[in-house]
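Figure S7 source data.
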Amino acid sequence: MSVTVNPRFMEELRPYGEFDVQGCYSCGHCTAICPLVQSGESFPRRVIRYAQLGIRERLASAKEVWSCYYCGKCSETCPRQATPGEFMDCARRYFIVHWDLTGLSRRLYTSPVFTAAFLGGLGLLFAVLFMVSGGRMDPRSFDLFRFIDVEWLHYTGIVVMSLVGLVLATNVVHMAMRLAEGLQRPPETSLRLLVLDAWLAIRDTLTELGLQRRFSECEPLSSEEVEPTYRSRRTIHLTIMWGFFGLFGATALDLLFKEPGSHVPLYYPARLLGTVSGALLLYGTMWALYLRYKHQGGPSFRRSYLSDWLLLGLLGGTTLTGFLVEIAVYLPRGFFLGYMIFLLHVILALELLLLLPFTKLSHAVYRPVALWIHAFWGRRFHRRSFRSLWASRAKGREG
Ligand code: SF4
Ligand code: SF4
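Tokens for the predicted iron/sulfur cluster complex:
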């Protein structure tokens, strides 16, 4: 692979985080302390070197950018205060923006004015669309689907999901191609082994991401910053992740099996899944917002960026208004505030979904893809080394 050196690369990274790796002299303290280092890795020293040299292609294909959980241990022990942990976090933000071909992520990550105007404009557009199609507020019963026409809601959801799928698929292909370009060409192998390695890599990736066991190895050095389990970074991250996927699943089940606009009891599977997932998501989001606001809970919560507030705001707003609507349904009479909360809930949910490829939420797709590619590549090289070892042993026996 030909490598392009970009002397201005550090400046390109600057808008996405505060770090100072210029002083790094490759002493290796960070590699020694990082709990995620496996034998043979020089995590995170190697990727800092790429950034210092301006080799973006190598940094783009580095696994470390996606496997770091930002515990900050490396930054606390660095003798040069080179903030390697902050650098890794910044690199993730930079690449989320870089993989998006539309350029919208860059604006949403760097300009609060643009972000506010964009969200406001989009919200207004959805509000007008729904009010034109429905808008009937029945004062005697709280009939949500006469207020927002159920057909319009249904088809808007399908259009939004299709757009998101298209943009996300394009960005992921872009990312996967760039990432694979920076990796060593793997050995040829049979189709059967290729499929087997791909499957084993999926299993490895899902096991790591589903439980995030390595997160628990990744606690801050200072015991004062270690949070109790109920509000540890791992618990918060797991509840947000499972809550989000649960809600996504409940929405998909609704679209597939439920008559649009029909009322179902609380124990109806899709509704039950949605309620439990919403509670998990709300729990994790509220703790994350609180700890970020208080600058507590470890280095990753001590300093927050626009992308953090945007995602947590959309997640928290969507789930909170969702629960308020659930409560309003059981109140004896329909009332103006209930309808307004429902409208806000629908707008926030659509914005959260529509902006998925352009916000921090996209890491829920990029991280698994990057880890899977590395796991797949790793398995193919491991198989080759195993074969060579086996062949040399057989030769030795024959000799
Ligand atoms: S980031 Fe700090 S600890 Fe790591 S290699 Fe550079 S100087 Fe050493
Ligand atoms: S922040 Fe933690 S996980 Fe990330 S490189 Fe530093 S020590 Fe390793």
